[in-house]
């Protein structure tokens, strides 16, 4: 394995924690004898192009420093390659790292773990979701949860709001969406089986267990079993949704009679006027098809 490691950094992650996390992570890697090259970009597209160049030129590993957004970007360059991925989780949500048992907001420890894993060959092959949408839409990889429905409507509204800043904006977006809440008519296809036509509050397709900074929407999902957990929250009333939604943080919502869980390797979601999000990033309007690809990325653990 080449001794040069690529540090892929989002300096704005976690309100600046990404920039602060890069230095202790780099120091831990250098102390272990690795040469460290840092990759940044003017924007996401530029950063991804630079990272793909580093992978093509033969980097020994990529260490993503930031939140789920920078991990998701790294997955686009690493999926299907032999180059391993390390994660220094320094973002707001960090759901990918949490699901894989990696350190969160401990950059020096995460750097030491990645260095030791490289030296000792500790690799875990992890599944990823591969997304295909409408004709002309590029394929994309994701590692955590594909979500659609009430939660994606909240994201849509929050992203349109300029004020207030921070988490409070999304709290207001939840209240606004509740005021106009109604279930959505879905068409869901699991593993090329018959189409399921149903009214649903939301549908989540989990490669791993959580999104939104620890909301365990797909609490039982295992990221290396070759299957998605598909969680369908049915036609809830506002009152039921207000009771069920807080349970998502502990994963106890899965036992509610309005919640159904399926397992499948391929899922197609169709619903009018609904945006799909994966790893917290907007993908565009449904329909979308997700396929679970076993062992698509090699993770340093």
Automatic annotation (TrEMBL):
One of its GO terms (biological process) is phospholipid biosynthetic process. Keywords: ATP-binding, Kinase, Lipid biosynthesis, Lipid metabolism, Magnesium, Metal-binding, Nucleotide-binding, Phospholipid biosynthesis, Phospholipid metabolism, Transferase. GO terms for molecular function: ATP binding; ATP-dependent diacylglycerol kinase activity; metal ion binding. Residues 1-135 form the DAGKc domain. InterPro entries: ATP-NAD_kinase_N (IPR017438), Diacylglycerol/lipid_kinase (IPR005218), Diacylglycerol_kinase_cat_dom (IPR001206), Lipid_Phosphate_FormReg (IPR050187), NAD/diacylglycerol_kinase_sf (IPR016064), YegS/DAGK_C (IPR045540). One of its GO terms (cellular component) is plasma membrane. Gene3D superfamilies: 2.60.200.40, Probable inorganic polyphosphate/atp-NAD kinase, domain 1. Its cofactor is Mg(2+). Belongs to the diacylglycerol/lipid kinase family. NCBIfam families: PRK11914.1, YegS/Rv2252/BmrU family lipid kinase. This is Sphingosine kinase. The lineage of its organism: Bacteria, Bacillati, Actinomycetota, Actinomycetes, Kitasatosporales.
